[in-house]
Design goal:
Blueprint: H1 3-8, H2 18-26, E1 28-33, E2 38-40, E3 48-62, E4 68-74, E5 79-80, E6 94-107, H3 108-116, H4 119-145, H5 148-163, E7 164-166, E8 171-174, H6 179-185, H7 190-202, E9 206-209, E10 212-215, H8 218-225
Antiparallel strand pairs: 1-6, 2-6, 3-4, 3-5, 3-6, 7-8, 8-10, 9-10
């Protein structure tokens, strides 16, 4: 795998010249993890941050009763744990692979030295941290203010945008997350997720088959996401 080319696709390295990225790549440690492998746990020493080269990683926290809440799903060419460069001595959550995944790890002290020599990289990191903050705000907003219908519609729209394949009269989405992981991602339980999927199916919005979702009415999902007066018939 051409790691330099993969790093160039990451926001944090966008706009950097080839020579800079080659030098940055030399400071990274690349590692492949099998699916369902914990990369780091909450409370582990925060020694650096990661770029996902391939695969998929979930960031989550556990409640005192061991209930899992997924905070974010990391897709290729995105960073995670980048806040550890500046604050905190430990990671505040768990990171676990959903499928086989390859990451690039950047050690904190070494990367800080690189930042001092590259203003463009520093600006990109600020943007990345700002996007991370927005994701946290959106998560709080979703869990506290939005219904399960709205959260599921938003999830399906995001999946359609990332993995959807346009067919004649629908969009086909192959889901990588399990039903349980989807429920944790949108902050509900399996039973409620099943009821909501059934409601969407009965309304003619979607259909399901094993690990696939067929979206027949994208406009209806968009209306539900915006919390309009859409009604199920």
């Amino acid at each position: 795998m051409d790691y330099v080319s993969e790093l160039k696709k990451c926001l944090i390295f966008s706009g950097l010249n080839q020579e800079d990225i080659i030098e940055i790549a030399k400071t990274a440690k690349f590692k492949t993890y099998p699916k369902k492998t914990i990369i780091f746990s909450e409370g582990d020493p925060a020694t650096g941050f990661y770029v996902l080269i391939s695969g998929m990683v979930k960031i989550y926290k556990l409640s005192p009763d061991s209930r899992e809440q997924i905070l974010h799903i990391i897709n290729p060419h995105n960073t995670f744990a980048e806040a550890s460069i500046f604050i905190g001595n430990t990671y505040p959550a768990f990171a676990e692979t959903i499928i086989d995944s390859t990451v690039a790890f950047f050690e904190k002290n070494s990367f800080l030295k690189t930042l001092e020599c590259n203003p463009k990289l520093s600006l990109n990191l600020i943007i990345s941290l700002s996007l991370m903050l927005k994701r946290v705000i959106d998560l709080v907003d979703n869990l506290s203010l939005k219904s399960v219908d709205t959260r599921l519609a938003e999830f399906l729209l995001n999946e359609a945008a990332i993995r959807g394949e346009k067919k004649d009269n629908h969009i086909e989405v192959e889901l990588i997350l399990t039903k349980t992981e989807i429920a944790k991602k949108i902050g509900t339980v399996n039973e409620t997720l099943s009821r909501t999927l059934k409601k969407f199916k009965e309304a003619g919005i979607i259909d399901t088959e094993k690990n696939k979702i067929y979206i027949y009415n994208i406009k209806a999902l968009q209306e539900i996401k915006e919390q309009t007066s859409f009604k199920m018939y």
